[in-house]
Amino acid sequence: MLACVSGSGFAVALALLAGLAGSIQIAVMGRFGDRIGSLEALAFSLLLSTVIATAALVALRGSLDGFTSAVRQPPWLWLGGVMGFFIVFTITIAQPRIGTTATIGLLIAGQLTMGALIDRFGLFGVERIDLTLPRLLGIALLAVGAALSLHRA
After folding, report:
1. How is the chain split into domains, by residue range?
2. Predicted structure pTM score
C-alpha cells in the first residue's frame, strides 16, 4: 500500500508525523516505565509493535514470507531492530529523569550527528552527501539547544 505512494512530499509528511508520534511515545513510555518498570514497559511496547507489524504484514502482503527473507539477509541489516530496542529503552529511562523536551533534543542532536556521518562517509550503503557549512551549523545549533533544554529553571 505505502509502496504505491511516491514523492518526496509524502516522505516529508510521513517523517513529520513520525516526529510528532515520537514525541508522544517519549512522554508515554516514560510514564509507562514509571508505573510498571522500564524493562516491563519496553518488553510490552515491543511486543505490541511486533503484533501490529505482523498483522500489517499479513494483511498487506498475505503471508509471513517477509520473515524468511529477513533471516536470509546479512546480520548487520538487523541493526535496525537492535537500535529500535535501544531507542525505546533509552526514552523510557530518560524521560522521567530529564523531561520530554530534553530527551527529544538530545535524541535529535544524536540522530543528526550520526546522520551527517552516515551521509558524509556513505555508511551502510547510502549515497554520500557532503558536510556543508549550513549542515554543520544546523547540527551545532541543535546540540546547543539540546544542552540548554536540560536546564529546568
Report:
1. 24-98, 99-153
2. 0.81
